[in-house]
Design goal:
Structural class: mainly alpha
Bound molecules: zinc ion
Strand order of the largest sheet: 1-2
Strand content: 5-15%
Order of helices and strands: HHHEE
């Protein structure tokens, strides 16, 4: 019986790690929280918004608005980057 509890919490921790990774959160923090609080730790993680990766954005050289780093043309003013 105890074995299933260990396996169950291990699966939950893997799920938490996967979810934390997807949301750009600290994987180990959420795995430990899941280990301590079980399924309840997954609820705030599931509800939380994805953390923005700042490396994915840059400022437009013409208008200064924030655009995707991979953008060739500014979505705000249309200037080529
Ligand atoms: Zn622009």
């Amino acid at each position: 019986m105890d074995g299933w509890v260990v396996i169950g919490s291990f699966i939950l921790m893997c799920g938490a790690g996967f979810l934390a990774n997807y949301k750009n959160r600290r994987i180990w923090l959420w795995m430990v929280l899941t280990f301590l609080f079980g399924f309840f730790a997954l609820i705030p993680l599931a509800v939380m918004k994805k953390v923005r990766d700042e490396a994915d954005f840059k400022k437009c050289s013409a208008c200064g608005e924030e655009i995707l780093a991979v953008a060739k043309v500014c979505k705000h003013c249309g200037t080529a980057q």
